[in-house]
């Protein structure tokens, strides 16, 4: 309750308690309180809001000052770190320090890993660790047979050279398809197993009848 409203209320209360009031006087006192209360309440709220804004402004001023100090510290650390990286022989890149005080940095490796230093790549798989399966190589050979048959229509024979495991797979798993393929292409298919050939390597070539026998 504001001071003016207190005065109105105390005055009305003292008048009411000191001497009896008539009904018109009582209604007038009540009306005065009802009319004056909202304006005094709004004034009190305005004063409270102003005080809160002033207090918040003082806090924001302190907060802004602290943020500026932290940013200045981040910049100084960043500059020092960049100056130190200039002495590093390894090529590196660095980003700005973020709001959490973290910095992202990368350095290019100049030496090989320990595994590379102690080991050599596998000569069979060329360091990949895997080779194509026998069925995959067999499927590739089947496609190459069709291509050779189309590009060498006049040649009656097609010779296939591959690893023994691949040739065995073709005979055991693709025998019926090979028979159908010979009848469809009207060509003779000759398979030659070569143990020295890599599992993934093969040769499909069209040859004359005299060359295929040799």
Describe the structure.
The chain has a three-stranded mixed sheet. It has a two-stranded antiparallel ribbon with strand order 1-2. It folds into two domains: 3-74; 134-213, 3-Layer(aba) Sandwich (Hypothetical Protein Ychn, Chain: A). Helix 4 packs across helix 5 (164-173). Helices cover 60% and strands 11% of the residues. Mean pLDDT is 74; it is low at 1-6, 12-19, 33-38 and 210-214. The radius of gyration is 48 Å and the shape is elongated. The chain has helices at residues 3-18, 23-85, 114-118, 134-151, 164-173, 175-185, 209-213, and strands at residues 92-94, 105-107, 157-162, 188-193, 202-207. The protein contains seven helices and five strands; from the N terminus they run ααββααβααββα.
Chain-wise SSE layout:
Layout: H1 3-18, H2 23-85, E1 92-94, E2 105-107, H3 114-118, H4 134-151, E3 157-162, H5 164-173, H6 175-185, E4 188-193, E5 202-207, H7 209-213
Parallel strand pairs: 3-4
Antiparallel strand pairs: 1-2, 3-5
Helix pairs in contact: 1-2, 4-5
